[in-house]
Amino acid sequence: MNVIIADDEDLARRLLREYVNGEPDIEIVAECANGFETVKAVIERRPDVLFLDVQMPKLDGFEVLELIDPGIAVVFVTAFDQYAMRAFDAAAVDYLLKPFPVERFREALARARRRVSAQTGAPSPSSSDLRNAARAPGEFLQRIVVRDGAKVHVIPAGKLDFAEAQDDYVALRSESKTWLKQQTIASLETALDPGRFLRAHRSYLVNVEKITRVEPNTKDTWTAILVDGSRVPMSRSGYARFRGLLADGQNRE
Amino acid sequence: MLYMAAWVPLGAILGLLAASTGHLSPAEAAAVIFPAIVLLAFICLSPWYTCPSLPLRSSPIGKLLLHHLFAACVVSGGVVLIARLAASGLSRVMPGINLRFSAATPVLTAMIAMVYLLSVALHYAVIEAQTSRRSELLAREAQLKALKAQVNPHFLFNSLNSISALTAIDAARARAMCIRLAEFLRVSLRLGERASIPFREEMELTRMYLDVEQVRFGDRLRLLQNLDSACADCEIPPLLIQPLVENAVKHGVALLDEGGEITMTCRLEQDRLWFTIQNPFDPEAPASRGGMGLENVRQRIDARYGDRARMEVEAGERTWKVVLTLPMRGL
Fold it and tell me: 3-state DSSP call for residue B307?
């Protein structure tokens, strides 16, 4: 079985290496010190198991999880993060709390092994849902990570124009480019600040700051024209929410 | 009992007053005043309930006066009425008492109203003293909470993990790290109990903290210090600098692949201590939780120095800088 170790601290990696080396049939195929490296290594080496630190430079563990194949058994490793721990518990995702004894490591490994051999495994929760669950209350997503091949692209929330649902994906429009990401529009909506992003339509989420004007279409539909000229349809309830947001904004001023 | 006993001299004064203005005999005065004073003693406890519903600071002054003056009129009217009833009841045994009592009525009414208002004032004083003690306690509690939050669990567990890793690699270093960590915890607990400490001691604590972090981050954590020796003996609140340094590590250096250099400078100027800390950060780093350290420092210097202290945060494109200015007494 192949594993990858991802942790930015040298000593933390060495500890995991020591534990892994005690297992006869396991090989470390890569060690990574930041999120970008991890994503790249996972795609290139396709490990069976990934030991993933939550806090790392470039991308945090949740962001990495969103960008890799859901078939890989991930074991999170963290020192202390109450929201993350609650989310792991709720989603039955395995995690190790630093410092952990070798027995605890073996348990996690055994569980990962079962997942790998069963291949189907327990239906893993969607990575973006797990991430939503791990956010502190009142905290919103500041950026969205997407992947193009082995290249990771980070879209700051403020630079997202709109998102459109396309089957199992969302198409994210930002700076005249479109990125596809496997996520439902509803889960994206809950992750973003509701004061800045509006569900204009069943299939559209739009950045309110990018709207220049709204035109009536037919009796019950409208169209939002964005700064870059994109046209986003608005349903009746979407239009009502838009009016509500405007009113809220005025009340605050 | 004690409360009622306190009313005896007051009752005696009122009785004397009634006797002198109404030419009542001492026995007559006592007979008339006694039931009234018992009643008044009970009524004067009522502000205990009415005062909190009309707080001194937040109620309009007109409403306050109107309410208590009206209550005073009703109370004195009622009490005098009781006395009057007592007098008429006694008029058979003590002929002429009614007439003589009437002469004393205005003075007695005014006095009773005054006594009632006095009790209102007394109640407000007690309430005021209680709230000020409560807010003092709250402030202390906030300070205590702040100090407890200093030892951040993330730091602690990560350090323990480093020790766990070192035990197999280099037992001597593992032991050294245990000792450093223990030293840091012990000193931060000890310093936290004091109201103020010399700047020098705070910097020693900071060094202990950085020693531990150095083991975790190795070459990624670099340090540059330029501290004017004149600052060494300046008295500052404990655990004010260390959280700033922790912040620089946690949100700056720790999220940089290649790490970075933390720069600290300190100087004395115009009776003020100027402390600056600067660290590089990755503007594209994943969000790291909590600026708790900074907020806590701000609250504590606000509470202690008010306008005389400042904390300014300058976020550059890739560097983060905090400037702390504290007033120094007697310099």
Answer: helix
Termini Cα distance of chain B: 57
Residue where a domain stops, chosen among B105, B128, B145: B145
Q: Which residues of A touch B169 (CB under 8 A)?
A: 11, 14, 18
Residue B103: domain span: 2-145
Q: Are A125 and A106 in contact (CB under 8 A)?
A: no
The complex scores an ipTM of 0.84
Tokens of A145: 């990570």
CB atoms within 10 A of CB A176: 9
State the architecture of A140-252 in CATH terms.
Beta Barrel (2.40)
* Residues B163 and A11: beta-carbon distance below 8 Å: no
The residue with tokens 């004061």 is A195
Is 70 exceeded by the pLDDT of residue B196? yes
Q: Where are the domains of chain A?
A: 2-133, 140-252
For chain B, what is the domain count? 2
Q: Is B45 exposed, middle or buried (0-12, 13-18, 19+ CB in 10 A)?
A: exposed
Please report the DSSP string for B32-79 in residue order. Answer: HHHHHHHHHHHHTTTHHHHHHHS-TTTS-HHHHHHHHHHHHHHHHHHH
B174 and B238 in one domain?
Answer: yes
Q: How far apart are the CA of A80 and the nearest CA of chain B, in angstroms?
A: 5
Which residues in chain B have their CB less than 8 angstroms from residue A63's CB? 286
Q: Scan residues 190-219 of B and list those with Cβ closer than 8 Å to A.
A: 215-218
Nearest-by-Cβ selection for B255 from A11, A57, A81: A57
Say whether residue A87 is in contact with chain B using an 8 A CB cutoff: no
Tens of pLDDT along A169-203?
A: 999 999 999 999 989 999 999 999 999 999 999 99
DSSP string, B170-228: -HHHHHHHHHHHHHHHHHHHHHHTSS-EEHHHHHHHHHHHHHHHHHHHGGGEEEEEEE-
pLDDT tens for residues B124-143? 888 888 877 777 776 666 66
All residues at 6 or more sequence positions from A230 whose CB lies less than 8 Å from its CB, including other chains? A161, A162, A173
Who contacts B240 (Cβ-Cβ below 8 Å, separation ≥6)? Answer: B202, B297, B300, B301, B324
Look at the domain A2-133 and name its fold: Rossmann fold (3.40.50)
Co-location of B191 and B319 in the same domain: yes
| CATH code for the domain of B321 | 3.30.565.10
How many angstroms separate the CA atoms of B232 and B269, rounded? 14
- Is the bond preceding B153 in cis, omega lying within 30 degrees of 0? no
The DSSP 8-state label assigned to residue A125 in this structure reads: P
